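testing teh design pipeline on a random one, pls ignore if ur not involved
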């Protein structure tokens, strides 16, 4: 089983397990999801976010339309998977709201990639402004849902995440593959920080949904 399939398998177990816990006493006989399991789910999904967006960017630079179409669908599917992890905690309406925000998040990055290929500074600036606005929306949503996710913390995490995407796009366009490889490593480590921050906040807000071993 490949890493993507393993991630999906873990995700399914996570959502099913948390969904049962969310239903109340009827799920008392089931093992709750461990914090380490949730951390693994979050890390795999955010790593997938990076992977598929990089594919989109690379397909823009090479004008591979068939591969681009596949990668764009995968980005959207991944965003839905990330949002679905939050369903047992906040419900379907909040999940759809988060999904919409993640789609806008990707849209701004995609727009920057397209503007870079086109060589348009004005369109790049517009895409960056959209990304900043979306970052504020995501931070407001997450901080409003969970008091353990301060708005400034979320803004900082997503601002740095966006900066990594911008660096990677510019480096791929310039065929600067050595620095792009370094940027890739940095952005992978950073999305682990995003994933761990979200996991820790959920564990603090909903301790009953997790075993007694907590993240330190």
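output:
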């Amino acid at each position: 089983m490949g890493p993507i399939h393993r991630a999906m398998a873990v995700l399914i177990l996570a959502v099913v397990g948390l969904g049962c816990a969310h239903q109340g006493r009827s799920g008392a006989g089931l093992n709750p999801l461990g914090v380490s399991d949730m951390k693994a789910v979050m890390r795999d999904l955010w790593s997938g976010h990076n992977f598929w967006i990089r594919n989109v960017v690379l397909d823009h630079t090479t004008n591979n339309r068939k591969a681009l179409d596949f990668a764009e669908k995968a980005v959207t599917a991944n965003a839905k998977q990330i949002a679905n992890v939050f369903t047992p905690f906040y419900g379907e309406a909040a999940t759809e709201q988060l999904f919409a925000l993640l789609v806008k998040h990707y849209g701004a990055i995609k727009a920057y990639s397209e503007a870079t290929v086109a060589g348009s500074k004005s369109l790049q600036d517009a895409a960056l402004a959209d990304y900043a606005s979306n970052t504020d929306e995501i931070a407001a949503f997450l901080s409003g849902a969970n008091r353990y996710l301060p708005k400034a913390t979320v803004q900082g995490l997503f601002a740095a995440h966006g900066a990594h995407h911008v660096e990677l796009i510019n480096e791929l366009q310039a065929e600067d593959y050595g620095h792009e490889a370094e940027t890739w490593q940095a952005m992978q480590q950073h999305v682990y920080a995003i994933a761990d921050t979200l996991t820790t906040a959920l564990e603090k807000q909903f301790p009953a949904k997790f075993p007694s071993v907590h993240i330190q």
